[in-house]
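Weekend entry, working from home. Most of the wet-lab plans are on hold until the incubator is repaired, so I used the time to fold the two sequences that have been sitting in the queue since the last round of cloning. Logging both here for the record. First:
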Amino acid sequence: MTLIIEAYFHEYPARKKVAEIIFKSGFSVKEGKIFAGNVEIPVSSLARAADVNRKIVYHTIEFIEKNYALKSIFERMEPMANLKRVGPIVGWDVLEFDMEMNKLSCALKDVLDILSKPGCHVRQVIGEEPLLSEGKIYIVLTRPVPMEILKEIKDVPTVKDITLHTSERDKNKLACAFCKVKACPRRALLQEK
């Protein structure tokens, strides 16, 4: 999608910034307006986020709607609830994987095969593969990840690094040589009260 935005907006850098924000936020463009699901997003709010004036936002909307290829993409966009930062707060584990460049689909298959074993309850999977850097996979699990599973995942050839985001307070239970562990400080504070 980055290439499509670049191709259509390369002559209009301010409009390109607006289009990128619309895309990254999962907003849709319909009937001259911007929506997050069924909620209309004020043009002035988007203009502030892109650090442009409102006129640029209106021109971007008009440009998208006049171009069939862009219109067909942007009118179908939907926002998605992303649980990767929320997981540790509600007691779930989030596994973050750094992948070799252009190896996301291979790694995802291998990691999901390992996580399909009993005891692993996947709630959400998010994959990101930028054009010029390594990919990332975030997997939200509703139960703690067994350490033997982390070892198996670390052995997947395309996995470069694993980070476990958890609400677990006893770090001795989590210490291992296979991953980095990050605990959510908010969760710890809530449990101390």
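Second, folded right after the first finished:
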Amino acid sequence: MRTKSISLCFCKTQYIIKKAWILALLVSFLVTACHPNPRDVRQTGRDALENARIQLDSGNKAEALQLFKDAEYYGLLANDNLTVAHARYNIARCLGYYADKDETISLLKSAAEGFGNDYANRSEALRELGDIYQFHSQFDSAEYCLEQAMVYAEQSGSTEAKRNCLSALHALYFNVGDFEKSADYLSQYWKASISDADDNVLMYYYHDMGNIYSESGDLDSADYYYSRLEELVSQAEPNEDTWFYYGVLSDFAEERGDYETACKYGCLYEEGNNLREIEQQENNLALISHKYDSEVMRNELNRKIIIKQRIIVIVSLVATLVLAALLVSQIRLARRRKREAEISAELFHFKQQNKALAQKHAEHEQIQQDYADRLSDALMKEQRIMLLLDNYLNSNKKANLLNELETSVYGDKDHWEAMLEVVDQLYPDLMETLRQKYPDLDEDERKSYILSYFKLSRQEEADYLGTTVNMIDKLRGRRRKKMEEG
């Protein structure tokens, strides 16, 4: 029965495990259903990247930096390497040259690697890395990065990437004093840009060529390019691109001794700076109000994923509570059923024991009944003998006739000793126990107690002891009193 109970508990445990697995699968399904899919996360990252570029073009670098970091986060979440690469490249640009050098270099290297076969952007990342090295006077590292950038730019076929690399190489060799190479790369830049060159490109070319010849000591060539620059600047509308060149032309005119021209361009340069400061002040309010709009835009951008994440948390919490409650209830149920099975097994065992005891009790009662029947027969026989003895005594027979009769019935023992033999067979050591437990009982009281085992009537007991019924009552009362006191 115990084996059956253990088997039942094992089955219940398996049932609980199956239920737990089913619930776990249900929770997994709900979490998967509520979790934002990679396409949504990827699109969110790209939207953040685009909005960051808008913020950067608006001059709001702090907001742009935060949005680029958001784009990096969502790109990593969606495993979108290109978005991550663009985000890290632009984060490095926002940090600028005065940020932590190691952090900026690490971002640009990671961006270059992340662009993979997008050679145009890979070239831009390496070019930016070369500029960082150049700013920190690590010219060898800068030269290596820019040459690699040039290789990727040519592989990409992008004219813009190639022009940016040529411009960066020109600046590098100008800074290290190799004016010949600097002029060569600037010439290549002009050839690459000539097909769609505008006034700004020409001004940049003339200005940098003038600087190269001025630093190399070829003042005539420098005068030629500065003159061409002056022609373009004088024809262009004053704007933030031409204001810078006003300062350059003012310095050049002052070197030639043309102070009137120098003063004219100097005034235009100062006027441009003043206009820039005024414009900056006017834009402050727009930037402040735009900060709130950008927060709203970013919140709207992330709203979908935030809601889904909250749903995930709520569903997971509810599912966890339900699972815990179910497991606790199942464990309690299993324990209760195990206890019920143990109680049933113990009850069955107890019933079996009771049945065996009842059978033994019935057998014992049957034995007692057999002994009682045998004793009753013996007592009846003895009673008949006593009647015969009375007849013999009353008939005035000789005393020796009585002795012969007793000898024929009891042998060498008297009739009480013969009775004790029967009692010892039924209740061993009864007489000895009676003497030890109740030593105050006299012989007649002990006889009366022993005869009570055979459920004799008072008359039968009186006949057996050779006395009257009244004496038997007194004898029984005296015996009971002594036994209660003892």
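Plan for Monday: verify the second prediction. The chain is about 85% helix and 0% strand.
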